[in-house]
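Worked Example 4.2. Consider the chain below.
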Amino acid sequence: SVNLSGPFMFSFNMETKYFEIYTAYPQLYTPGDANRWSQAASTPIYTTDYVNYKGFVHVASMFKFCATLNWDVNWGADNGKLTPGGSDIKVEANGCYYVTANLASLTYTTTLMTSCGVIGDATPNGWGGQTNLVQDAANPMIYRGQIDFNGTGEWKIRFNDNWDYNLGGDMNNLTVGGSNIPTPGAGKKTVTLDLSKFPYTVTVQ
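Applying the procedure from the previous section yields the following structure tokens:
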């Protein structure tokens, strides 16, 4: 018998009757030069299947993925693939990135968020175009702007002027691809999006 505690992943091969047990990590930390290489100070990315991880991260020029609050289990990148203990993962510009990691295929992506705004029939440009928010100069994970909302309709957060990356649903727990958000009522209101911690939130005041 085997006594285990905590989340684990099992891999079975029915033909060879061989199986493996892996530790399942609920999140990956993203230490890098933006957070002085501190796991605790980094923005974690999360998973629903213990294989695919994704989320928004501040990267200045380089970072790594870590499964723990130390360097015991970490991945860098070599030859375009995630590598245990590998080289630093480098990006071209300082900013907010949407990153993904697949621990089974050892693949990853880093996409710079070049713009962020609100969109929807409750907003000035309707569903045809986003009204951009301004990225905070001190914290690129925070976006803010004054929006003249309509009294009816709905809205969402959208990035890069396309629908590849958008947030909706509960304003205190925004999700990628989440549902439309009801209008907060007619008038000019300050919208603040905070991606610096999870869950992601947006306030309208």
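The chain has a mean pLDDT of 93. The two ends are 57 Å apart (CA to CA). Compare this with Example 4.1 before moving on.
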